[in-house]
Design goal:
By secondary structure, the chain is mostly helical. It has 2 domains: about 1-135, no CATH class; about 155-270, no CATH class. The protein contains 10 helices and 5 strands, in the order E-E-H-H-H-H-H-H-H-H-H-E-E-E-H. The strands form 2 sheets. The protein has a 3-stranded antiparallel β-sheet. A hairpin with a 6-residue loop joins strand 3 and strand 4. It starts with a strand and ends in a 20-residue tail after the last helix.
Amino acid sequence: MLLSLPPQTHALVDEQFLPRYWSSVWSLLHAGGLAASTHKRKLSFIEALYVHTETLGGNLDDALSTLDFDALGNALEAYFISLRNAAEPSPQAEARWTQAFQFVRNTCDRIARNPAAGNRMETVRSQVERLDRLYLALRPHRKRMKPSVRALPTHVVMELLDLVEPDSPTNPFDRADTQWRIYCMVLLMLYQGLRRGETLTLKADSLRSQRDDRTGQFRWLLHVSTNETEGDPRADVPGIKTVNSIRTIPVTVTTASAIGKVSRNRGRPAARILTDARCGQPR
């Protein structure tokens, strides 16, 4: 039972209104720096372990005093199961369990450091470590992470490509140059895995062709580099994430064709950025 005493102090007592011994020790040694409300809340969590142990026919103070680790383990495990199987899980279940376990653990550890423990000290410490291994990491109600979409479903990808396909009746952009520019950006990010900043820093001459020595066929390579354009007119100048992002990657024929259409009319110095909106009609 939790009693509130003047001035703003609290104590645990049993059914005969006798102080619970080890909770009183805990209050004297650990609660000195706690606010009255925090002390009261922590004592209520400790009291719940006392009461639950008594409903099962045990006595928590006796088990702690005699360092009966079998009884302590059974009490902790039964209390954890009661929190875990509650019909209506409490948001404070984890705090209740953590405080109850730390109370038992700290009490046993303090007894183990008592010189009166004598030759039992090492045995007690090993039993305390065993309690840590068994119960320290337990959580009555782990927060379930909301499932996140790791990849776009196939039908979504197909709908997206149909939407941004140049000359598609569903394409929301009127100008042909805008259609090809958006289509090119989608291919670069979707198929080539470029980040937004990497896509926006590509130069009109970033695409190169190279003969494959093994097959003798030409392949397309795209050079991803930092934005070194002086006087970039864009309000939010993009950049790459790290220096390790500077790389040369192979691209598909479809992507290379789209890049070629967009970059073909890049004649002015201000239009050196591949995705710059100021471009002419693709040929």
